[in-house]
């Protein structure tokens, strides 16, 4: 089971074979946010408190596209338990 703080590798998509740390999980939709993976550009409107502009941020990725990595032995990969 993938949890917040775990190291994962991306199996498919534009960020294939990249590694990162899980920063947020959405269990209802089976999605997770991984640090510096699946980056999207977000247009922010200017307000009194914040300056507007274009900001890069992480977007959710499906859990089926992620695989856990064993921290102790990088070459050995761990399968997710169901």
Descriptors for this entry?
82 residues, mainly beta, SH3 type barrels, 5-stranded antiparallel beta sheet, two-stranded antiparallel sheet, elongated
Q: What does this entry look like structurally?
A:
Strands 6-3-2-1-7 form a five-stranded antiparallel β-sheet, with no helix packed on it. The protein has a two-stranded antiparallel ribbon with strand order 4-5. The chain has one domain: Roll (SH3 type barrels). The radius of gyration is 15 Å and the shape is elongated. The model has no long low-confidence stretch (mean pLDDT 88). By secondary structure, it is mainly β. The relative contact order is 0.27. It has strands spanning 7-10, 19-26, 31-34, 39-44, 53-58, 61-62, 66-68.
Can you lay out the helices and strands and say which pair or pack?
Elements: E1 7-10, E2 19-26, E3 31-34, E4 39-44, E5 53-58, E6 61-62, E7 66-68
Antiparallel strand pairs: 1-2, 1-7, 2-3, 3-6, 4-5
């Amino acid at each position: 089971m993938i949890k917040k703080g775990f190291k994962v590798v991306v199996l498919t998509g534009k960020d294939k074979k990249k590694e990162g740390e899980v920063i947020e999980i959405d269990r209802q939709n089976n999605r997770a946010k991984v640090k510096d993976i699946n980056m999207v550009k977000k247009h922010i409107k200017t307000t009194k408190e914040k300056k507007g502009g274009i900001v890069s941020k992480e977007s959710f990725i499906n859990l089926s596209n992620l695989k856990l990595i064993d921290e102790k032995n990088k070459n050995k990969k761990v399968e997710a338990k169901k």
